[in-house]
Write a structure and sequence with these properties.
By secondary structure, this protein is α+β, with helices and mostly antiparallel strands. It has helices spanning about 45-55, 75-85, 100-110, 115-120, 160-165, 195-200, 205-215, 245-250; strands at about 5-20, 20-25, 30, 40, 120-125, 125-130, 135, 140-145, 150-155, 175-190, 230-240, 255-260, 275, 285-290. Strands 1, 4, 7, 8, 9, 10, 11 and 14 form an eight-stranded antiparallel sheet that branches. A two-stranded antiparallel sheet has the order 2-3. A hairpin with a 5-residue loop joins β2 and β3. The radius of gyration is 23 Å and the shape is flat.
């Protein structure tokens, strides 16, 4: 059964001495809003971590395959629907038969978690249609401006014999990495029950999505992301599919403040912030608020 309620959520995560989302067009520096100097993390980056967690935990579960995964060939992913339904692909086009075309897209939704969750444009050479997903994320932005640091690093090895000869056996390779000393990031999310009806996004899928937000950083540690942590997940649940309040009015009820911010020192941990949730009058308006983290 698909979800019957609309949801919005506020998700908070932080990074310590790491790079939450490098910009390949800027030498992999942490992404920045040039106007405010606040850090950015793209929705694509966060969805990637959700996909990775679901693939890790549900690898053998029917219906939880991942469509956009590392090294996948999307034409091959699309062709699985045609093979399962015994339909011959036509280059770049869905079948003219509307029932067959619908069946292909429905098969993709039923078998790929990320397609029925986030949607997908599957109009490649083997066309499986286009799906608008019920779960959408905005960009994450840090609460305060961040000051990325560029750190020099040394590898005690070289790549080629020529490099070793040039260094007369010293065999060092210098490099650089970029880090954010500390940053607390906030992202807003939206979940539509009406779009869930079209993709088959269920209560079980929603539970897996919440679990992913809580656990995905625990399985994404690397040299660049050694300390990234999920800190808060505040969920607004409407009592019907269309919703009872505008999303921006709900987001405004989550207020994040610096403790002792007047001293001018930068934040260095999550404990430097206070989080207030104004839930006054929400129940009367048909909205339930809960903290899942």
């Amino acid at each position: 059964m698909t979800i019957q309620n609309r949801y919005e959520f506020v998700y908070l995560f932080d990074v310590t001495n790491g790079n939450p989302n490098g910009d390949p067009d800027a030498g992999n520096m942490p992404r920045l809003d040039p106007e405010s100097s606040k850090g950015l993390v793209t929705d694509v980056c966060l969805k990637r971590k959700v996909r990775n967690f679901v693939e890790l935990t549900e690898a053998d579960t029917q219906g939880y395959e991942i469509y956009v995964k590392e090294k996948s060939v999307l034409n091959n992913q699309n062709k699985k629907a045609y093979d399962a339904l015994d339909i011959k692909p036509v280059s770049k086009k869905l079948p003219k038969d509307e029932a067959q075309a619908h069946a292909i897209t429905a098969w993709m939704c039923a078998n790929y978690f990320d397609v029925r969750t986030f949607g997908a444009v599957m109009t490649t050479a083997i066309n499986s249609g286009q799906v608008r997903g019920p779960v959408q994320l905005a960009f994450a932005k840090s609460i305060d401006p961040i000051i990325p640091l560029e750190i020099s690093i040394t590898r005690m090895a070289v790549t080629t014999e020529k490099e070793a000869e040039d260094q007369q056996g010293d065999n060092r390779t210098m490099g650089r990495k970029h880090i954010v000393p500390y940053g607390l990031y906030r992202v807003h999310g939206f979940i539509s029950a009406k779009l869930a009806e079209k993709t088959g996004f269920s209560d079980e899928d929603l539970d897996k999505f919440w679990q992913s937000l809580g656990m995905m950083f625990e399985h994404d540690h690397s040299a660049a992301r050694g300390e990234m942590n999920a800190r808060k997940l505040i969920v607004f649940k409407h009592n019907d599919a269309l919703g009872n309040m505008p999303s921006h009015k709900l987001f405004e009820r989550v207020i994040i403040k610096r403790k002792n911010g007047e001293n001018g020192s930068p934040a260095s941990s999550f404990n430097d912030y206070s989080i207030e949730i104004n839930n006054q009058g929400l129940q009367e308006k048909g909205v339930e608020v809960s903290e899942l983290l």
